[in-house]
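Hypothesis: this fold can be encoded by more than one sequence.
Test: take the structure tokens below, design a sequence, compare later.
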């Protein structure tokens, strides 16, 4: 679906602006009840929707963000969004700023037809400049 990226990108910005603005009402309206956030740490850690919604307005605070490279794909009523992001954030007053990679799953509602985020996976980006070329060398369609 060629026009999916602008639609999902708009929802992504709404979600992120709600986080920056500590707008729990907007975050809740954009987040599915069965939402899960997976943090790519060692070991990985999960947050459910109530935990995320509470933390996003009280303890894990985002001051600013900027998306880099964007990717979106439609899979029926599910949309996959992935992007590099630069965030300025704190957790319990400690700096958690940096470059991250986010992968989000959005599901389109049947009744209201709006999109809600079902899952977000956050991981650190790999700064090794050899990685992209090495992975491209694996591509069979070149």
């Amino acid at each position: 679906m060629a026009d999916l990226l602008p639609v999902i990108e708009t929802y992504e910005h709404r979600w992120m602006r709600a986080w920056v603005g500590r707008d729990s009402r907007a975050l809740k309206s954009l987040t599915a009840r069965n939402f899960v956030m997976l943090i790519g740490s060692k070991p990985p850690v999960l947050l459910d929707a109530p935990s995320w919604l509470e933390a996003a307005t009280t303890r894990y605070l985002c001051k600013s963000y900027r998306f880099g490279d964007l990717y979106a794909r439609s899979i029926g009523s599910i949309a996959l969004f992935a992007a590099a992001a630069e965030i300025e954030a704190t957790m319990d007053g400690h700096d958690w700023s940096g470059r991250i990679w986010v992968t989000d799953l959005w599901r389109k509602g049947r009744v209201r037809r709006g999109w809600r985020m079902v899952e977000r996976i956050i991981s650190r980006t790999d700064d090794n400049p050899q990685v992209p070329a090495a992975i491209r060398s694996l591509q069979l369609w070149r």
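Residues 42 and 123 are 11 Å apart (CA to CA). The helical segments are 4-20, 24-30, 49-58, 130-136.
Hypothesis status: open.
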